[in-house]
């Protein structure tokens, strides 16, 4: 090391407490690969058996520049008994998928997504249903498996809704403490309310979520998880789009910047195979790209085990050709 470099290093150390944050410093873009979550109801019921997303999709999408794969699963598949041990047979199947995604490129990240709407069989976590300890149990076990892999991001819960936000945020704090106690240093995704709504985040759950602390220190490893669709009722069930969401995301970005310069990931968004969505999704993802690093990136809903007839499909055709939405509106905004 040359003297000039040493001096420079000392100088930057001196400003380190203010300038250095453990922020997520890679722009992310990719896709949800659904399947292990099939038949999870919004009330947390589950009646399925799980469908394995095709592993070939990871190399396909990584070859086009994708570096984020969100892999949802039903809580009941991972731990058949509430608060019980992970089913090692199921975990082995799930982990094979996770490793296929991670192996698809050296820079690929995976969001392990507990897709249960803050519920188990109709009952809300910490609010009459599973105890916070039962909720933490699955994550401490997953931390034992993935706790040393920085490319695995823990999506602590998919789309909480219709619950007491104060108590929900307390449940999240309990889980954050538990996974750190278990030795995990992974980035954690904290979801708010109203199905992880990006729109209600600044006024509903956001003001509480910014208060969640990380035993690791700082808040740079606590990212917020937001969803937003572009159809008439923000449900992601219609083929046509009516908004590009830029106003909603601008409001979110202002809130995050004003509250400690925090970061969020748009982990679900999507549209149908229609010209309105080709335009609106492209404008949305262009904005997401421009708002990095406040918005770390996005994963579009969805490929995986969905077939090409699903209304929001980005599953490639069997001949390997991509959906037009992917080509027109997603691919140009990958990292
Ligand atoms: C554990 O997972 C395997 C493989 O998915 C499945 O066949 C089995 O039924 C599961 N066990 C329980 C108790 O759910
Ligand atoms: C939510 O829970 C908090 C803490 O238990 C309680 O003080 C508050 O009254 C609850 N809010 C509603 C709307 O029930
Ligand atoms: C692949 O299949 C799709 C759907 O049938 C079709 O639209 C497309 O033209 C095909 N692409 C090639 C290169 O054959």
Please tell me about this protein's structure:
The protein has one domain: TIM Barrel. A hairpin with a 2-residue loop joins β4 (119-120) and β5. It has helices at 3-14, 16-19, 56-62, 75-78, 88-103, 132-146, 165-181, 206-209, 246-258, 275-290, 324-330; strands at residues 28-34, 68-73, 109-114, 119-120, 123-124, 152-155, 188-191, 222-227, 264-268, 295-304. α6 (132-146) packs parallel to α7. It is α/β, with parallel strands linked by helices and 335 residues long. Residues 1-20 have low confidence and may be disordered. Helices cover 34% and strands 16% of the residues. An eight-stranded parallel β-barrel has the order 1-2-3-6-7-8-9-10. The chain contains eleven helices and ten strands.
Task: Please outline the helices and strands.
Layout: H1 3-14, H2 16-19, E1 28-34, H3 56-62, E2 68-73, H4 75-78, H5 88-103, E3 109-114, E4 119-120, E5 123-124, H6 132-146, E6 152-155, H7 165-181, E7 188-191, H8 206-209, E8 222-227, H9 246-258, E9 264-268, H10 275-290, E10 295-304, H11 324-330
Parallel strand pairs: 1-2, 1-10, 2-3, 3-6, 6-7, 7-8, 8-9, 9-10
Antiparallel strand pairs: 4-5
Helix pairs in contact: 6-7, 10-11
This protein binds 2-acetamido-2-deoxy-beta-D-glucopyranose (3 copies).
């Amino acid at each position: 090391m040359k003297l000039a470099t040493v001096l420079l290093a000392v100088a930057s150390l001196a400003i380190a407490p203010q300038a250095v944050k453990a922020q997520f410093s890679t722009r992310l873009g990719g896709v949800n690969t659904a399947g292990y979550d099939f038949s999870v109801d919004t009330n947390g019921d589950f009646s399925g058996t799980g469908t394995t997303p095709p592993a070939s999709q990871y190399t396909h999408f990584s070859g086009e520049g994708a570096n984020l794969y969100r892999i949802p699963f039903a809580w009941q598949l991972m731990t058949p008994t509430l608060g019980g041990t992970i089913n090692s047979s199921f975990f082995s199947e799930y982990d094979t998928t996770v490793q296929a995604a991670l192996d698809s490129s050296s820079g690929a990240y995976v969001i392990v997504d507990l897709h249960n709407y803050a519920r188990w069989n109709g009952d809300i976590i910490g609010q009459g249903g599973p105890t916070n300890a039962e909720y933490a149990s699955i994550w401490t076990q997953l931390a034992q498996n993935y706790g040393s892999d920085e490319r695995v991001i823990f999506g602590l819960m998919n789309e909480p809704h219709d619950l007491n936000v104060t108590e929900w945020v307390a449940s999240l704090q309990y889980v954050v403490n538990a996974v750190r106690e278990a030795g995990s240093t992974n980035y954690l995704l904290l979801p708010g309310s109203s199905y992880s709504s990006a729109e209600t985040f600044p006024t509903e759950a956001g003001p509480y979520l910014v208060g969640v602390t990380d035993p690791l220190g700082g808040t740079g490893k606590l990212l917020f998880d937001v969803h937003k669709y572009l159809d008439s009722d923000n449900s992601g069930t219609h083929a046509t789009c009516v908004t590009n969401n830029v106003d909603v995301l601008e409001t979110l970005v202002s809130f995050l910047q004003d509250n400690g310069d925090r970061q969020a990931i748009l982990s679900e968004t999507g549209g149908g195979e229609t010209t309105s969505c080709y335009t609106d999704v492209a404008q949305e993802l262009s904005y997401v790209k421009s708002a990095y690093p406040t918005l770390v990136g996005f994963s579009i809903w969805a490929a995986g085990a969905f077939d090409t007839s699903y209304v929001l499909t980005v599953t490639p055709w069997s001949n390997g050709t991509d959906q037009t939405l992917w080509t027109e509106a997603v691919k140009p905004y990958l990292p």
